[in-house]
Amino acid sequence: MKRTTKIVVGLVIVLAAVAIAAALWWKAGQRQPSVGPATARVARRDFASAVQATGAVKPQVGAEVRVGARISGKLQRLHANIGDTVKQGQTLAELDKADLEAVVAQRRADVAVGEARVTDAEARLKLAELELERARSLRTDQIGSQQELDSASMTFAVGEATLRLTRRQVEATKAALQESEARLSYATITAPISGVIGSVSTQEGETVSAGLSAPTFVTLIDLNRLQVDAFVDEVDIGKVRPGQHAVFAVDAFPGKEFEGKVAAIYPKAVIQENVVNYDVVVAIQTPYTGLLRPDMTANVTILLEARTGVLAVPAQAVKRERGKNLVHVSSGGHVEAREVKVGWKDGPWIEIASGVQEGQTVLLDAPLTNSTGKKQP
What we know:
By secondary structure, the chain is an alpha+beta fold. The chain folds into four domains: 39-45 and 308-363, conserved putative lor/sdh protein from methanococcus maripaludis s2 fold, CATH 2.40.420; 51-60 and 223-306, Efflux pump adaptor protein, beta barrel domain (Elongation Factor Tu (Ef-tu), domain 3, Beta Barrel); 75-95 and 188-221, CATH 2.40.50.100; 98-186. It has three helices and 23 strands. The protein has helices at residues 2-30, 98-140, 146-186, and strands at residues 39-41, 43-47, 50-59, 64-68, 73-78, 85-86, 91-95, 188-190, 195-200, 207-208, 216-221, 226-233, 245-250, 253-272, 275-284, 297-303, 307-314, 319-321, 324-331, 334-339, 341-346, 349-354, 361-363. A hairpin with a 2-residue loop joins strand 21 and strand 22 (349-354). Helix 2 runs antiparallel to helix 3. The longest helix has 43 residues, at 98-140. The model is unreliable at 370-374 (pLDDT under 50).
């Protein structure tokens, strides 16, 4: 029994030792080797940067017109429907014009009466002139009296004044006629540009009232005069210049790429959800008739000029502290924070215009500080 007990105790001790050794071996396997801070070298790279933006297809200025009436009245005829193609000057709608035509007829009659009065005044003035000449002749021959001459002179003066007044009245009547004819022309609404009817907001039989703003009958869009309004982030707007090449695609034709050129940059910012963007107008150069329509979403890429051999580091290495751009340069086991001037950004890389030299090593993350406040490598 004593021998058996010794054997059992020995086995327990051996098993315990094996378990301890296995635990120590497993724990040692879980230890990670000490790793230093992540670094990168300052090197020269080629930048072929581009600015990405989202925008929409929009009509050019003057390519979308809301057509309405300048006078009030009942809409008698509507010659337009959504999707119709119209030419400039084509009749779109007509208001009831019976009362306007009656006014024009009345004004024309007034002009005719006024012209007849002018003819009568001219004849009377001619007669008064003859009477005046006769009175002067008689007075010269000492036959007629001074009173007769004065009376003839007054009659002639009155005739001149009457003729002038009658002519002014005719001019006023003709002006009234022109006004009534203009109002009559307003009853016929024509297309100011060629394009496609985008919307119709009034129906035949409705009475429209022209107040401070003309009521809109139809919206007319020229689909041959479209552009892309791309909203560029304020971070990238400094890189964009008129004349730069751009490409874009729309969701309706994902496999087709349209080319364009930056035509203008709106000076006023567009703030959407507290994000500052600027409207960059892209003139479309690829033929797009029958493909693009207003308000299509466009994914725009503005191609910037290529830059070769510029100093660059990973953008992660540049830290913003107290309004300055800093990188931490590691040399000989020491870390030094340096202020740098940054330039373009190309994906994960950023250009360093000054502050570091080619071949130097920079830390990707800012080093920790010890209890004295000094940075540790």
